[in-house]
Design a protein that fits this description.
The protein is mainly β. It contains four helices and 20 strands. It has two domains: 219 residues, Clam (outer membrane lipoprotein receptor (LolB), chain A); 64 residues.
């Protein structure tokens, strides 16, 4: 269940009402925007923590159903109070231009998580197609004869704990690529309104096993945690090869500078392959210092 649930949480990344990829709506999201979903007796609160340029940081906080003890949650207050009873608390940093996951940190376990999963980046670039109203699920039995005048079904919508009467949704469909994952080739329907960056209803269609649905129980804005920032890993020198220095360097470190010990600039070449960086320069001037902002590495 854990792997499937993780995929569902990643599917909560916003879609645009008038856009054709998964990442576009994130660009219009505001810090504090949030949605709360329920799947298999686990509630998940997904919040926009911060935005800077093309980068956005999301917080995902999970709590099992039994920890609520039947009480209705005021989710913003729950978050402000350190999310008592939570089972996991994860931060994601995403570059909306490159569709890359830059960092993933577990606040509950106080450790960085593996970034190798490419499922998220696949989702960010999936094309969307708006479903025509005539093709939507209808309310009630079909007529025996004549024109079908039934209303299209729509999921419930909640805003800051209150149910919205007669919500207006647009419905989009996308298909996951065939890549040997549990959801390979599956069709996904998502319901959105024009007031939030998050989907309110998600249905994964599986002809062999039936549909799987992910429902929302609240949404809104102004949900801010006391998480001050996304923790950072530090670039490290891991070795030398063929005259090049090899660094392990997260992708959010860019535009390095190289100087000698007298702080005079040195021309150099930088080649990046994922989080591995190769640095080469003329060494006749002796040791050098490579700087990423306030972080400095001596290259001897």
């Amino acid at each position: 269940m854990g792997g499937m649930k993780k995929i569902f949480y990643l599917l909560l990344l916003p879609l645009a009402i008038f856009a054709n990829t998964l990442s576009t709506r994130l660009g219009s999201a505001t810090p504090g925007d949030y949605i709360v979903t329920e799947y298999e007796e686990v509630y998940s609160m997904l919040c926009v923590h911060s935005k800077e340029g093309s980068r956005i940081t999301l917080e995902e906080i999970n709590i099992p159903w039994h920890a609520l003890r039947g009480k209705k949650k005021e989710w913003k207050k729950w978050l402000e109070n350190e999310a008592p009873g939570h089972s996991s608390w994860i931060l994601y940093e995403i570059d909306l231009e490159t569709h890359e996951m830059l960092e993933c940190f577990s606040r509950s376990q106080n450790c960085f998580l593996n970034l190798s999963d490419s499922f998220l980046t696949t989702l960010l670039t999936l094309p969307l197609a708006k479903i025509d109203e005539s093709s939507l699920t209808k309310v009630g039995p079909p007529p025996l004869a004549g024109k079908d005048t039934r209303n299209a079904w729509s999921p419930p919508r909640y805003l800051n704990g209150s149910k919205i009467i007669s919500p207006n949704f647009s419905v989009y469909r996308t298909t996951l690529p065939d890549n040997e994952t549990p959801l390979s080739g599956k069709t996904i329907d998502l319901y959105f309104d024009d007031q939030s960056p998050f989907p309110y209803w998600l249905k994964i269609c599986d002809p062999t096993k039936g549909s799987v649905k992910l429902r929302s129980i609240d949404s809104g804005s102004g949900a801010l945690s006391n998480t001050s920032h996304m923790p950072r890993r530090i670039p490290t020198l891991v070795g030398k090869r063929a005259g090049m220095y090899i660094l392990s360097c997260p992708k959010y470190y860019v535009n390095p500078k190289l100087c000698d010990l007298q702080e005079k600039p040195i021309a150099f070449t930088e080649i990046r392959e994922g989080e591995t960086v190769f640095i080469s320069f003329e060494k006749a001037r002796g040791p050098a210092v490579l700087s990423y902002g306030d972080i400095h590495l001596e290259l001897k």
